[in-house]
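Input/output pair, single chain:
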Amino acid sequence: MAYVYAAARTPFGKFNGALAGVRPDDLAATALRGVLAKAPDLDPARIDDVLWGNANGAGEDNRNVGRMAVLLAGLPTSVPATSINRLCGSSLDAVIQASRAVDTGDADVVVAGGVESMTRAPWVLPKPSRAFPAGDTTAVSTTLGWRLVNPRMPKEWTISLGECNEQLAEAKDIGRDRQDAFAARSHELAAQAWDDGFYADLAVAVEGVELDRDESIRPGTTVEKLAGLKPAFRPDGSITAGNASPLNDGASAVVIGSEAAASTLGLEPLARIAGRGVHALDPTEFGFAPVEAANAALRRAGISWSDVGAVELNEAFAAQSLACVDAWDVDPEIVNTRGGAIAIGHPLGASGARVVGTLAHVLRERKQRWGVAGICIGVGQGLAVVLENTASDAR
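Output:
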């Protein structure tokens, strides 16, 4: 069986904000060092593998940012690492793959995490089809969404993420008022979590940067203020910059190990990874994909939604988050009780490990036994894991 032993992350910076001057490989190394500092008994040479999520990989991520993080963090060169790209779900995929390696006995201690600098994602130029073309070419941003699209791809699949969620909101009858209320709650709970010190045990300072909490959180955000924002994707749409996740920079990490790894790490586990799920559907419906991913993870854990005491769902958009919560028929009050990505931010490759680390700590805080972490993924996919709180007082 695989367990979560420790979690850490940087504060998430705004696009072109406090972390804009920090390379993604340095952010990754910061999170890696930070999570390993929680296991001072661990000889780093005992780490069997490092699995690192990253959605872009087009620039300073340097193709295999996981290996770069290992080297920059000062770990022994004998520690292997790989990078995983499942877009927004990259670091949750890293956690899943790490837990499978431990479950099968292929590894005893694995660090899983992810990073994204959406600020520093480069522009790219396609290579010409022939030498010395006379015409102009266009630099394409790699920050977010489709680029250099294959002309054989159906056009209805390559619409913007925002338009996909406008369609989802329309299909599920999720209005602007509900979306804005969900977003305001995210900011309120995230700000309160930092004020309460909840994230103090999870946060890792970034050297040379003055950023002591997530930069996108707007304390005092209200439904009334959000209602004044203009729609971002349709003139008469419901999705705005206020009820969607922003562009962000940051990194996160978790230590995954076997039951026997407790003595190696000098730690007791926080939670057991009890179930895993993946689901795919039409690319335009990506926001709804966590529904069946979570249902599959619950089946594999041998429990149902009635057993679940906490949910951490990455808030790509309020519309898709509400669609998922409605479909699960779960109490909305147990979802993202310490804020979500609309407030905290969504640096693509880092978000999956963030929700896992947050969920493990929320389960401890609320003394709940079972929790679900889920994330939607562009181009029509979703991932989820079920955690079991291993504390004796979990109910």
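The chain has a mean pLDDT of 97. The first strand starts at residue 3 and ends at 9.
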